[in-house]
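EI: anyone free to look at a 106-residue chain?
SC: sure, send it
EI:
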Amino acid sequence: MVLFTQVLRSRELQMNQQVNIIEKRIERSCIDMSSGSEFNSASIGAAAGEIWNFIEQSEGKGVSVNRLCEELTLPKKLVLAALGWLAREGKIDFREEKKKNLIYLA
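SC: here you go
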């Protein structure tokens, strides 16, 4: 009976952790990007700096858009705009590897 209780508690903890992860993803995806205060040239530029630093720290490994969104907790729309900014400045390259699009520093 004790073992059963321990297993139940362990599974409950795992489920709570999964719920927390899902809640965070929902919060990030529900940010209203149409309000001018969160999606403007200043926020895009700030995100571009965060992204550039993250890619630089990846030690030459490619980074996916999804990983950038998750690791930096930025909305996908903001990440894509920032990547466009960096690409226009010639700071990043896009490469397809094993059917994945990855981003590298130029």
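EI: The radius of gyration is 18 Å.
SC: 👍
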